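so my prof wants the structure for this chain in the tokens format not the other one, which i didnt know existed until like an hour ago. anyway here's the sequence
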Amino acid sequence: MNHIGEVINRYRNQVKMKREDMANGICSEKYVYLIEKGDRTPSSEILKAFSERLGVDLFDYYEYLDCVDPLSVKKYIEEFRLYRAKLDSEQLKESTQKATQLHDFNEPPYCFEIEINEFYYATYFKEDYLKTIDQIETFLDKIESKYSRSEYFANALVLLSSCYIFIGDLESSYQASMRVSDLLDSKYKTRYYEMTLMNIRINIMTVSYHLNKFDTVLEHGSEIIQYKFHTSSHDRVYYAYFYTSFVYYKLNKIDNAVNNFKKGIYLSLTEDLTNDIKFITMQDVFIELLKDERLNKELVKEFSDKYKIKL
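here's what i got, hopefully its the right format
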């Protein structure tokens, strides 16, 4: 097992900081030396001060101290999270290949990260849904006894729900979504709670829309929009605007529908969302809303050109 002193030592050397400078105003130089050797454990106050001095949150590394290489494991997991969120297949594939060269990613639990990446790739890029469903079910059976409350289990369920959506099995997708929702609603929170919660709410909105459970779509959509507003984040909130606009349109609340649809378009122009928009444009009322005369024609043209949509 590693100790936090090794992490501190590696970061201090990376930024070429002397122990004397590290200790200045915090503790003695000798105490830094003893911490880095593993002979002393820093208090939370000292660790916070070291974090500020090094420009890194050292508290994040405690969960990785069982790893052979904590810094690399944390680095790759952060990359996985980023590339999954962006649906960046090439970067995810490259990062996964590099990670498998490390011992930590060939043993539980971090080998599960590699399997989750493979499921992402199969789901969103190979589109081999039936085979992936079988593989995910096998994976869930394998880890359930020990890891049923882990982020690996939750992420696998999200992907399972997505696969069922893609093959049109909405009831199975809804059941998988509810299993994740129950997990996230419990006191336990996964390490990537926010990202997992966002993904499953999107799946619940999608399935509920097709099952005509419009109240559920509006409930989850409103929660996403409000949460993202308070956190000043726009990550995937366009999904909520688009799906709530579809519901409002079907409920004949046209002004609300057009207003939310317009917000979805604005947000989708801020970055390349080709994979998500491709799926959203397949929904039954999308083109009808895009042709609504109350939308700015230049805005519609910019959006249509960007995502190659034929009106």
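also thought this was worth mentioning. The mean pLDDT is 90.
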